[in-house]
Design brief:
Helix content: 25-40%
CATH topology of the largest domain: BirA Bifunctional Protein, domain 2
Shape: elongated
Number of strands: 16
CATH architecture of the largest domain: 2-Layer Sandwich
Strand order of the largest sheet: 1-5-6-11-10-9-7-8
Bound molecules: histidyl-adenosine monophosphate
Structural class: alpha+beta
Largest sheet: 8 strands, mixed
Strand content: 15-25%
């Protein structure tokens, strides 16, 4: 049997990769405009980082991590997300010593052992932003506006931005007790996972997709019911600033995120048209995380969005650019001598950074012209024995079907001029 790619992974082939590049370039340009710098951290980390950072009671840590022992018997894990890694890098590289806040972004693959389905992969890609060292509500608003702005630039306008406040450890202790009390008489009706969550992390029961659990939690106390004054003021300020920035949002008191580190603001963005996995972005504030992994007390706020899901949304809405960048010219050389001469011509054109290519299979004139057409080349640069003898190059305009002859020793200059005219047209 032939070897196949692992379940839940994808090969991104030419034609599709250009769409990824377009998306990544748009993300990078928004980050440049907002003053965020890129960070790259390792693909794997000590398992303990995610256990402590993401949380022992989360599905990610309990069920979904790719964990292995390396040859030195150290437990390592392929990164399931990057917030914990960015906080580790912040502490390890003493970024808290730099002017605060530190505003970072990343784009790269993450790994979760989930049941693959449409929009859910085992290797998927996230674009994310993390702001470390500022606890002001204006940070939350700026980051959510950045997300909004990115989607606007991509043309994605029909989205739902859900916002909530999950409070701080003080208000959460109160909420936990109220929620446990509310659910105490109906504990048996909960699904097995929520039965376990009841003692360990009852908040997550509010987020369960099981229909019975959803019915049982109707009318349950939400985190907003127990917000302390500080959390409540913070949330009010975030909502006010989102309004100022023109972000259209919905307060969703049942929004709780699947990772343990969140405090205060939490948010998610959904696009209905892409099916069950409609969350294209999720994030929030995590004021205790840096300290949890051994750093100085440092507030944080960020998000991550799945590139596969955004591309699916762009595809459904026909918002992806169709055109592959086209070749300017294709060398059509016939015979070894012409190939050598043509190779020299192409090398010169390439030093001028012109998008040019050549046939690599020594095919017939007809086959080479067909290939030039397929690659969308504007011109064919034809060089056969006759041209070599006359010391000329034939430049054929493949759109108009017209052709001219130029002296071979002036060809580079001529083609360069034609290219410049095309670029400036
Ligand atoms: P998350 O909600 O686990 O948050 O993931 C963020 C986004 O990544 C999701 O909304 C979804 O678009 C995408 N995603 C997650 N899992 C998969 C998957 N298996 N296949 C395809 N896409 C997926 C985090 O990861 C947090 N680190 C976000 C954050 C950053 N919070 C603060 N800073």
């Amino acid at each position: 049997m032939t070897i196949q790619r692992p379940k839940g992974t994808q090969d991104l082939l030419p034609g599709t990769v250009e769409q990824w590049q377009y998306l990544e370039e748009t993300m990078r340009s928004v980050c440049r405009d907002y003053g965020y710098d890129e960070i790259r951290t390792p693909m794997f980390e000590a398992t303990e980082l995610f256990q402590r950072g993401v949380g022992q009671t989360t599905d990610i840590v309990n069920k979904e991590m790719y964990t292995f022992l390396d040859k030195g018997d150290r437990s390592m894990t392929l990164r399931p997300e990057l917030t914990a890694s960015v906080c580790r890098a912040y502490v390890e590289n003493k970024l808290y010593g730099q002017p605060q806040p530190v505003k970072l972004f990343y784009i790269g693959p993450m790994f979760r052992y989930e049941r693959p389905q449409s929009g859910r992969f085992r290797q998927f890609h996230q674009f994310g932003v993390e702001v470390l060292g500022a606890d002001q509500a204006v940070v939350d608003a700026e980051v959510i506006s950045l997300v909004w702005d990115l989607y606007r630039r991509l043309g994605l306008t029909q989205l739902e931005v859900h916002v909530n406040s999950v409070g701080c450890p003080v208000c959460r202790t109160k909420h936990r007790a109220l929620l446990q009390e509310f659910l105490s008489t109906r504990r048996e009706e909960l699904c097995k996972d929520c039965g376990d969550r009841y003692d360990r992390n009852p908040l997550r029961i509010l987020d369960c997709k099981n229909a019975t659990c959803q019915a049982v939690t109707i009318g349950a106390p939400t985190t907003r019911d127990t917000l302390c004054e500080d959390c409540s003021t913070h949330f009010g300020r975030v909502l006010g600033l989102l309004g100022v920035a023109g972000v259209v949002y919905r307060v969703n008191p049942r929004l709780v995120r699947g990772l343990d580190y969140y405090t205060k603001t939490a948010f998610e963005v959904m696009v209905e048209e892409i099916g069950a996995q409609s969350a294209i972005c999720g994030g929030g504030r995590y004021d205790g995380l840096v300290e949890e992994i051994g750093g100085p007390p440092t507030p944080g706020f960020g998000f991550a969005m799945g590139l596969e899901r955004i591309l699916a949304a762009l595809q459904v809405k026909h918002l992806l650019p169709e055109e592959k960048p086209k070749l300017f010219a294709m060398l059509v050389a016939l015979g070894e001598k012409a190939q050598t001469e043509g190779f020299s011509l192409l090398s010169a054109l390439r030093t001028h950074e012109l998008p040019v290519s050549m046939d690599l299979l020594s095919r017939s004139l007809k086959a080479q012209l067909k290939a030039a057409d397929r690659l969308g080349a504007r011109y064919a640069l034809i060089l056969g024995e006759e041209e070599l003898e006359k010391k000329v190059l034939v430049i054929r305009d493949l759109t108009l079907g017209e052709q001219i002859e130029v002296p071979l020793n002036q060809a580079v200059e001529e083609i360069h001029k034609m290219y410049q005219r095309g670029v400036n047209a």
